[in-house]
Amino acid sequence: MYPFDFKDMPTSASSLFSAYASMAAFIMLVRSMVDQLLPPELRSYIYSFIHQFFYSPRSLDMTIIIDEKCGYINNQVYEAAEVYLQTKISDSNERLRVTKTPGQKSLNIAVDKDQEIIDFFDGVKLRWHFVCAEDKNSGSGGDDEKRKFELIFPKKHRTKVIDSYLSHVLARANAIREEEKVLKLDSQLTQHSGSVDLEHPSTFDTLAMDPELKRTIIEDLDRFVRRKDFYRKVGKAWKRGYLLYGPPGTGKSSLIAAMANYLKFDVYDLELTSVYNNSELRRIMLSTSNRSILVIEDIDCTVDIQNRESEEDDNEQSNTRGVTLSGLLNFIDGLWSSCGDERIIVFTTNNKDKLDPALLRPGRMDVHIHMSYCTPSGFRVLASNYLGIHESNPHRLCGEIEALIESTEVTPAEIAEELMKSDDVDVALEGLVNFLKRKKSERSKINDEGSRGTNNIEIEETNEDAERKQA
User: Fold this and answer.
1) Which of 11, 108, 384, 431 has its CA 20 to 30 A from that of 251?
2) What is the predicted pLDDT for the residue at 306?
């Protein structure tokens, strides 16, 4: 075989055309043989490989997708990116969203969808894209959106971005949250439920509660938040359950707000009657954030959770008839309770005796707090809050009022309402004295009527016994 030499190539047009025709005929022959001898699947693979190799240059960039949700759970990286990127908005961004709630110190500025934010980290250029698309799996007629961030950067910096940059984003976002912490009150009833700022002014200093009970609650909260390693060592989920029970108007909601303000925890208000079934309850519980308080008010009234035997008789309908006791217990003390850290669950009820004993045991409702009627110490707190009367300089009517409170069942809410009726201290306290005297008189009448009714029953029973003896 002779070596190829450019001198041997044809130079005339006819020779070139003849060579081109021969080559084309050879290619057509090869293609015809391939089509006849190779199966379609193999041909398609070969063609795509050749096309990709010769016509599609490989990209030098990598894209990380950061979805809003990880299944049912909020994606912490997405939440951190939302906070972090607010500090990276520049003049190149054409569309911005601006909000501000009464509790926020400054404007909340965020990019609109399909906008890009440029960031630099250790010499690496990173591009963030905010993407919103219709969630086709939501089943709600297309009203829900699936939100995500796309992080684009050179492939050669993959290790640096994943190991160092994303950790930097998480740490910086946590620092920003602490600087501009605004407590949230959220009603977890829908997948994209909204929240409002928690601006309840209640604190432990303003609560009309026994000082010793206050101190006990504060110490229990402090002990809980600092014992992360202890809970992990003993194999328990890092959560705490409280039961607040007592008559209406004794300050159960105010105590919850005071706990949230003290710990700087967000509050989730869960209405069990609006939860469709145990599966939806699981989704709601998993969507709550760490360092939060989950509130289930009036647990004895919101759902029928007393008859456990009926659940065993009809397990087939458990997915369509609402929350069951076993389902609720599983989420507050079962395997699902470990999905999240540093959480407090608060139950409230006016009638503790109506609750199933399974709910009351430690591990579910760890601390039982009786919210009683107002006491003299509670009145002193209210008098200081509403009228500026301090123990060091008491009013002449304070002693009489405290004596009436000890002999009368009156709630802190009722006393607070009386104190608000006048800005004049004398008028307000005189009105409170008259109110307490009326309450005491009404209570005495009720007790007298009850005693007379009991005596009448005893007399009737005695007469019936006498008639039987005569017979």
Assistant:
1) 431
2) 44
